[in-house]
TrEMBL record:
A Gene Ontology BP annotation from the UniProt entry: fatty acid metabolic process
Alphabetized PANTHER family for the sequence: ALPHA-KETOGLUTARATE-DEPENDENT DIOXYGENASE ALKB HOMOLOG 7, MITOCHONDRIAL, SPERMATOGENESIS ASSOCIATED 11-RELATED
Protein name as it appears in the record: Alpha-ketoglutarate-dependent dioxygenase AlkB-like domain-containing protein
Ranges for domain Alpha-ketoglutarate-dependent dioxygenase AlkB-like: 121-245
Organism name: Ridgeia piscesae (Tubeworm)
Length: 250
């Protein structure tokens, strides 16, 4: 019974990742339905009036194999440092932790995409946290966006990692925005057509990252394991990491 309910609840989360993940035939079909993209200037993401809402210049948090990759990723990824305060991080954590705690960490995702994780989704948030979710949505998505109402919460153990994947184009739209709680990490974007071309993005604790359009469709993304967690020659220590992810509908 419990398993049945869980399956229904997680069906949505699985849909988000499952289609594109591992199997060659599936990723090929996804590539085939990659929609046309337009390059987005990250500076246009935030409200120009509010300095706190301006993204960090992407070059400060991006290390790429080549300038073309750097330019594409700079144009389609934004990172907002200290998007949430320590107090807000705690409020989000306090709301999700009782639910996460009831779940066991999974060693392997059924489709082999994630190691050492547990996850949930949440539609209704406490008044305090709803304000934060709305802040993300208002900043990142256009006013007429069709949001996936369930916010995805992914809890990675310190030794956990997410392998390269592209979120399902059938279930998830052009933009993915995640708040990073508890730990900094490195998100790697690898060119789907030439895997020797990639960029690493430093995601500090309490930052918000936004990937859209070309970064979302033409590059896979992954969260590096502790052993690979380096940025510009410095170790980026990995701890337990919780991401709170908003998506729009396809
Ligand atoms: C995912 C994913 C990234 C993150 O769940 O599909 O890519 O920040 N998560 O946890
Ligand atoms: Mn993903």
């Amino acid at each position: 019974m419990v398993l049945g309910i869980q399956c229904i609840r997680y069906a949505r989360i699985m849909q988000i990742r499952c289609c594109q993940l591992t199997k060659r035939s599936i990723s090929t079909s996804i590539r085939n339905c990659v929609p046309a993209v337009t390059q987005v200037n990250t500076n246009a993401c935030g409200s120009e009036k509010d300095e706190k809402r301006m993204p960090t210049p992407p070059e400060d948090v991006l290390e790429a194999t080549d300038t073309e990759t750097a330019d594409i990723l700079k144009g389609n990824i934004a990172v907002y440092q200290n998007f949430i305060t320590e107090e807000e991080e705690k409020a989000l954590f306090d709301e999700v932790e009782p639910h996460l705690k009831r779940l066991r960490y999974e060693k392997d995702h059924w489709d082999d995409a994630i190691h050492g994780y547990r996850e949930m989704e949440r539609k209704r948030w406490s008044a305090k946290n709803k304000v934060i979710i709305e802040r993300v949505r208002n900043l990142v998505f256009p006013p007429d966006a069709s949001h996936i109402p369930y916010v995805h919460v992914l809890d990675l153990m310190a030794t956990g990692y997410i392998k390269a994947h592209v979120d399902s184009v059938r279930f998830c739209g052009s933009t993915i925005a995640g708040m990073c709680l508890l730990s900094s990490s490195i998100m790697r974007f690898v060119n789907e057509k030439d895997k020797s071309k990639y960029g690493d993005v430093l995601l500090k604790q309490r930052s918000l990252y936004v990937m859209r359009d070309r970064a979302r469709y033409e590059y896979s993304h992954e969260i590096l394991a502790a052993e690979q967690s380096h940025f510009r020659g410095n170790v980026v220590p990995r701890d337990r990491r919780i991401s709170v992810i908003c998506r729009n509908k396809a």
